[in-house]
Amino acid sequence: MIARYDFASDNTAPAAPEAIAALNAANAGFAASYGADATTARAADLIRELLDADAEVRFVTSGTAANSISLAALCRPFEAVLAHRDSHVATDETGAPAFFGHGLAIRGLSGASGRIEPAALQAALAAPESAHAQPPAALSLTQATEYGTVYSADDLGALIGPARGRGCGVHLDGARLANAMAAGFDPKAIQGLGVDLLVIGGTKAGMTPAEAIVLFRKDLVPRFDARLKQSGQLPSKSRYYAAPFVGMLQDGSFVRRAAHANAMAQKLAGLTPFPLRHPVEANGVFVEMDEAALRRLHAAGWAAYRFIDGSVRFMCSWATTEAAVEELAGTLRAIA
Hints:
The chain is of the alpha/beta class. The protein has 2 domains: about 15-250, Type I PLP-dependent aspartate aminotransferase-like (Major domain) (Aspartate Aminotransferase, domain 2); about 255-335, Alpha-Beta Complex (Aspartate Aminotransferase, domain 1), CATH 3.90.1150. About 40% of the residues lie in helices and about 15% in strands. It is built from 14 helices and 10 strands. Strands 1-7-6-5-4-2-3 form a 7-stranded mixed sheet, with helices on both faces. A 3-stranded antiparallel sheet has the order 8-10-9, with helices on one face. Strand 9 and strand 10 (about 310-315) form a beta hairpin.
């Protein structure tokens, strides 16, 4: 039996037609290298327009690299990043932030459904410093969170304000920013909230592997390209990483495709017989499922994984169809 990966991750989906068309358009003729081409300039302009911000933009190959390089720009090796304990940078980067940051630490904070609890942040910021521990120098937030929930601008502000008040830089992991936007989050609020570095996810949004690093803080720009080059993230043919952003931002499909993914998650949430573990606000559905039921699901041909908190995760994407949702829901009812 061939396994079905429709809901295993939003990384398993193909690239959206808009992204592929833009890649084909960028593949014509010769162009300047290392980001000096017209396609990269156009993509950066579209991102600045999306954010309503005068910011520098760079394109890299993976979210791991984008997040880790960004955190390394905010922390010295003897300092720490405060992040949700189940965030991607804390649990799923194979130590990349510490590698790129030459020893920086990730300190995990608690909070329901992937959102950092303000009291947990306050406690971490208030802890006395010691030469025997790495003090916090940055706050990393995820929008939408690992559990598919979405911070409001006020929620983000309630965390960013105290962090900046203690001199911390702020990084926002937007691997699923498109889904947060489709759920109502306004990206134009990001700069005003005090974010220093933003990663905009392209891969999960329906692009080929492509991520954008947005630098709001101009003092971080000098030598940032040298940091990217040393990290193997200054691609010579930058236009091929930037082009998908052109394709999906210029006609609104970045958010339109994410809205479809969110709608499919809502549909699945309404059909599953298993209890929901977290609110369904973006494109992820997390359910309570025992091991026997999960084995039956696998035997029926569906790829699905148990997540950090023990729930079973189903991710919808731009390519998820209503028919696939109904087919999975039928299997879930059969194995419940």
